[in-house]
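Section 3.1 - Work completed
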Amino acid sequence: MNELTHHLGDNKLGWMLDETLRMPETRYAILLSADGLLMAHSERIGRDEAERQAAGMAGLQSLARGTAEFCGDRDTTWRQTITEFDDGYVFLVAAGPGAYLAVSASPRVDMEAVSFRLQELVQRLGKELTSPPRHGPGA
C-alpha cells in the first residue's frame, strides 16, 4: 500500500464524494488507485462493497486503456468510460496519475451534468487525487 492510499484509508475524502452525490439520480462514488485499492468512498456505500467495486473498476479502466488503438492511436490518453446497464450507468474517470473516480447513477440521470461535475471534482481535488504508481514486485 502506498503512502497516499494508506493516508486516505481513513476516508478523509469521502465528504467530497458525498458532495458530488447531491446531484439527482446519483447513487455511489468511490475513489481508487490504478491497482484497485480503495482510496475513499461515499457514505451511501459500505467499505467492503466499495473495496470490491474498486477492484472491478481498476480492471475496467485497464481494459478501456487497452483498447485505445481502436480509437485511432494506441498511445492516446484514456479519460473516461461510461458503462450502461438496465438499471443505470457507471461513470469512470481519470482523476490524476494512478487515480480514478467512479460514480454510479440511475437511468434517469443527466449524463452530461454528471460528466461535467466529475471533471470539476477532479480539478478541484488536484494533488489529493493523485496516487503514484506502485513499484517493485507485482506492480
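Second construct:
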Amino acid sequence: MKLFISADIEGCAGVALTDETHKKESVYQRFAEEMTEEVVAACEAAHEAGADEIVVKDGHGDASNIDPLKMPEYVTLIRGKSGHPYNMMYGIDDSYDGVLYLGYHAPAGDPNFSISHTSTGNSLYIHLNGKVMSECMLNSYTAASHHVPVLFLSGDEEICRQAKELIPGITTVETKHGVGAATWCKAKEKVISEIREGVKKAVTGQKKECQVALPEHFTYEVTYKDWKKAYTMSFYPGMQKVDTFTNKLETDRWMDIVTAHCFVVY
C-alpha cells in the first residue's frame, strides 16, 4: 500500500499563535519538533496497518519544518518548494492508495480558530463553487483529480467538521478548538495517541467512502484584505473583477484553479 501525507503545522498540538509557526521566532522550534513527532506517529501507524511506501510532503512555509533525520526507513520526505502548483500536494499522482492530512486548520475568515487562513494571510476568505475553500478542500480536489481517496485528517475542531462535510467517510482527530483569540489545546500525548489510532482505522477502513467527487465546473472567488492586492491580481489571465476587494475565475479544468491559486494569493 502506498500513501501520501500532506503535513502542516497550525493544526498540530499546542499551536495557537502566529509566532509559533514562523521559523525566525524563538518559540517556533518546539512546534516544528511537535509537527515531526505527529508525522512520525502517523507513518508508524500506517506502516503497522499495511503501508509499505509512504511519501510525506512538508506543506508549511518554506517546507523545511519536519526533521528529515527522524523519518522511518520506509518514508520519503519531500522538503522545500518545487514551484509546482500542487504546492502542499506536490508529489501526488495516480499511483497512491490514499491521502492523509496532518496539522490542518480552519480556512481564511473562519472565527473558530485564531490563526485560520487559506495558504497565506492575504485573503479575507476564498469561495469555491459558493463554499468557503479551505486547504483541505483545495488539496482534496487535487487528490480527486488523481482518483486518490482522502482517508484521514488531524487539526482543529472546525477543519475536522468541514472535512467530514466534504468527505463523509474520512477519519478525523481534533487537536484543539478556538474561541475568539483563545485556543483550547488538547495534551500532546493524547493527540499523538489519537493520531496513531485514527490512522490505523483510516488505512484499514473502506476507502471508497473517502473518494471525493470532482466537480465538472469551478467558480473560484477570492476576497482580499487589501484592495491594492485585489487590483493587481485582477490582471491574472482569466480573472474577473467582482468588486473592489474580490476577483473570480471560472473554468472546467482543475489545473486552472490550482495554478491560479498559487499565484493570486501569494
